[in-house]
Amino acid sequence: MTLRILPMMTALCVAFGALISSAASKDFEKTDPASVGLDPAGMARLSTDMKAFVDQNRRAGVVYAVMRQGKLVALEAFGSRNIEKNLPMTTDTAFRLYSQSRAVTAAAILTLLDEGKLKLDDPVAKYIPEIAKMQVIKEIKDGQVVATEPQKTPMTIRHLFTYTSGLGYAADWPKSVGMNQRDILSLDGDLALTMSKLSRYPLLTQPGERWIYGFSSDVLGRVAEVASGQKLNLFLKNRLFDKIGMTGTDFWVKDPDMLAEVYGPDVSGPNAPNALMRKASPASSTYTKPGTLFSAGGGLVSTATDYLRFMQMLLNGGTLDGVRVLKPETVKMMLTRQTTPQQGLVYWYNHNSSATFRGYAWGLGIGIRAAEGPHTIPGSDGDAAWGGLANTTYFIDPKQQIVAVALSQYLGDDAEALALTLRNGVYSAIQH
Questions:
Q1: Are 17 and 388 in contact (CB under 8 A)?
Q2: I need a labelling partner for 35 at 20 to 30 A (CA). Which of 17, 170, 283, 389 fits?
Q3: How many domains does one find in the chain?
Q4: pLDDT tens digits, residue range 80-114?
């Protein structure tokens, strides 16, 4: 069914979103952009550009937020979180983070490093013994794995954090191997079962050889469960969410109506391409009810205000509101490039270097802007960023003291425009 966003409804949603923004912003000190070196006219243009996603039916709804020097300068919601139910987008709307979960889970797991409960150079097999048995693909011929070899260097915790473990996603293995993504990350299972299934397959490369986007964060999630003695959902709650007030972040929402629906372009209807329709999104967690699979690589739901709190904690060197989560040196290591040029620059899901992440490397569970580039978006050397499958994006710029996030729930060819709009808007507003 073709869905339209009526102009009157959009205007009401915008107005309602503005009211909600005012209430939600109490968590941070709201300030005039000019007081922290941001041009008010430039920030107003960013607001207009974000609203345009809704006005032009490119998104059902958008929430975005910007902070500089610890001060909130923008927090707005536009459009709808659920068109069918006529529910407006608000700044406390929950979003499927997908891969935007990775930095959050990485930061929480690094608290174990601070406590000495794990070391970066520990073999993963210390916590997940079956990992030691994984062979490495040595030769593929005619789509068949014809030779494997043992791990020359055992996979370590560092390899998991830097995505050089040799693990990709199911589509990276030859089809003849028979790996099924949904089977590995089965919503009916848990991380222990995921490890049991994953360890039956060979690694794509020797550990430490190459950066590959894949299951590494989920293996880290299981390491955290073993090292802490807690299921990952409780571990994250105790180590991070409760400490810094991330009250809207979990693997499911308490109120299903607060979770934004996923939309995309209607390419076949009579009003295409200027209409939106609901899209079936990949299930990386249960989202609206308690479950048993806690995917550290893509299972979280969260809000714009919660993600601001998380990013500001990192920008502050591990503290927020007087509560320390991580040691400053641990945060610095997380937000510093850890991969080498020889291990490759990072890519998005389909192995193509997207405009958003072109010229990025990897820290510990997060993308880091590499000095050598080439870059296609504005930023600072060493800024940290990533995003999520259903069109969520963020960046942390320690040099400019900026954190920013933009959230929608959208699947379509226009996805990169959200990150580009956020970046271009914020950096063009910086007063030099």
A1: no
A2: 17
A3: 1
A4: 999 999 999 999 999 999 999 999 999 999 999 99
